[in-house]
Each structure stands twice: as structure tokens, then as C-alpha cells.
Amino acid sequence: MLLPINDGYEVVKFEDIVRCQSDSNYTTVITNKGAKYVSSKTLKEVEESIHSDVFYRVHNSHYINTDYITKIFKSDGGYVVMSDGSIINISRSKKEDFFSFMS
């Protein structure tokens, strides 16, 4: 995946992406090395460009790499803890499908 930097683009492998977070018409991509890239693509566009069966859209604003999940909680509506320490809520509408996906 090509992600913008000051003077061009950084090439990031899908497997290095921990999560993608939507912010209106922008998406922040966070990698396993702690780098954050802001893309002018929507989360839907990013989701369509990532060709991997380990990514899952757990929430309207979060697309995660399930390989980087460290914990999954069913309480409080359901949420995951990612390897970067972030806590991502699982939307009610996606909760059942997510748990099926993970099993």
C-alpha cells in the first residue's frame, strides 16, 4: 500500500498494518512499528484496497488487522485490545459476525 509522506510515498506491507482509523474523509493508518500515516482516502477506499483475509471492519470508523489483536472482551458491548495498546469498540451490528469470523 502506498501511503503519503512529505516528498512522496511510503510503501507499507498489508501485514505491517495494525489498524486503520477513519476521521471523516481521511484515514489514519497505524503500523506495527508505531508509524502513523494520514491518507486522503476514506476508510471504505482503504478497506477496498487491502487484499487480506485477516482484516475486519469492527466499527464504522475502525478496520483492524486481526493478527494484532491481543485481547477480546465481550463485556461493555464488546471491544478488542490491539498490540499498540489501542482499545477498539466492536459495533453492535458487527459483534455477532466478528465473533464468527474469529472462531
Short note summarizing the structure:
With 103 residues, this protein is α+β, with helices and mostly antiparallel strands.
Q: Give the integer mean of the pLDDT values.
A: 93
Shape: globular
Biggest sheet layout: 5 strands, antiparallel
What's the arrangement of strands in the largest beta sheet? 5-4-3-7-6
- Continuous helix count: 2
Give the uncertain stretches in residue-range form. none
> What percent of residues are in strands?
35-45%
| Cα distance spanning the termini | 28 Å
Total DSSP E strands: 10
Helix content: 10-25%
Element pattern in H and E: EEEEEHEEEEEH
Radius of gyration: 13 Å
Query: What structural class do the secondary elements suggest?
Result: alpha+beta
How is the quaternary structure best described?
single chain
Structural commentary:
The chain is of the alpha+beta class. It is built from two helices and ten strands; from the N terminus they run E-E-E-E-E-H-E-E-E-E-E-H. It has helices at 43-49, 92-102; strands spanning 2-5, 8-11, 17-23, 26-31, 36-39, 55-59, 62-65, 69-73, 79-82, 87-89. A hairpin with a 2-residue loop joins strand 6 and strand 7.
